[in-house]
Amino acid sequence: MSQRISSTETGSIALGSLEERLSAHPHLFERIEALLNVVENSASDLEKADLAEQRVMEEVRQIGQQALVSWAEHQHQKHLELLRQNHPQVRQHLKKNFTGTPALES
Fold first, then answer.
1. Which residues lie closer than 8 Å to 44 by C-beta, 6 or more apart?
2. Contact criterion met (CB below 8 Å) for 38 and 46
3. What does the pLDDT look like over 10-53, one tens digit per residue?
4. Separation between Cα atoms, residue 1 and residue 57, nearest integer Å
5. How far apart are CA 38 and CA 31, in angstroms?
6. Is pTM, for the whole model, over 0.85?
7. How far is it, in rounded angstroms, from Cα 82 to Cα 9?
8. Taking a C-beta distance cutoff of 8 angstroms, is the pair 15, 7 a contact?
């Protein structure tokens, strides 16, 4: 596979093949693979263009959703790392292990 160059917001350049880059995002990789299965009609169940169109649209929608989730997770991780670098004294908030009290009945 050929090498691709993509620039990010920070100006750094990431090199790698599409397969290498997708391996870092397994959920997105699965969605792309599902789209390819539709294109190749690997299940041999797509006889009409309407059904193929519906499947492609659904897969593209799911790819978009997964891409946004991956983007958000990446941004969150970047923000946490920056916060830890700038404020090493800050501790991560962990959920308390408290059972609570029973609700009052009316």
1. none
2. yes
3. 444 566 888 888 888 898 899 999 999 998 988 888 889 998 89
4. 27
5. 11
6. no
7. 15
8. no
